[in-house]
Design a protein that fits this description.
mainly alpha, BED-type domain-containing protein, binds zinc ion, rod-shaped
């Protein structure tokens, strides 16, 4: 059925589903079935209509082609769909990004286990060739240890000061 919409010749006939016949809109002729080739052969009797139909078909093909191209091109432009890319990224950057997600961005730790994220991060980890496991647990542990060490540093610094600052913890 879909291919019929690409062929303008069907617009010049009416089709009877019961008798399986096609009736020419411009004359009294009735044709058996609705084969594009037969209809075209008949329409060539009405030379003006035939030429018009051919022109319409060319236009349809053209617009279908540009439509297909423009969607593809649009996606390529939007995502820059190069087949493969090399990126410069290290373990530290990844961990920092994960920490930022759960601290600055306020995302839940469970998000780090999401399959969508894993699909991006796993090939990267493979590229770095580290068998480190980065997931919600390891990042939680990392953030916890980091905050303890920051607090410890802070305590050292404030104890060096002669006066205690109550606003700092
Ligand atoms: Zn006719």
């Amino acid at each position: 059925m879909a291919r019929h919409t690409h062929n303008s010749v069907y617009g010049y006939f009416t089709h009877g589903e019961v008798l399986k016949k096609s009736k020419c809109k411009s004359c009294v002729s009735t044709l058996t079935g609705k084969h594009g080739k037969n209809l075209k052969r008949h329409l060539s009797n009405h030379i003006e209509l035939y030429q018009e139909m051919q022109l319409k078909n060319v236009e349809k093909k053209k617009s279908a082609a540009t439509k297909k191209m423009s969607i593809l091109e649009g996606h390529e432009k939007l995502f820059q769909l190069n087949p493969d890319i090399k990126v410069k990224i290290g373990m530290k950057t990844i961990i920092n990004a994960y920490v930022e997600l759960v601290t600055v961005n306020g995302r839940p730790y469970t998000m780090l286990n999401d399959t969508g994220l894993r699909k991006i991060i796993d090939p990267v980890l493979k590229g770095i060739n580290k068998k480190k496991c980065i997931n919600s647990n390891s990042i939680k542990k990392y953030v916890c240890e980091e905050s303890i060490s920051i607090k410890r540093k802070h305590k050292c610094r404030s104890s060096n000061k002669s006066q205690t600052c109550f606003f700092e913890t």
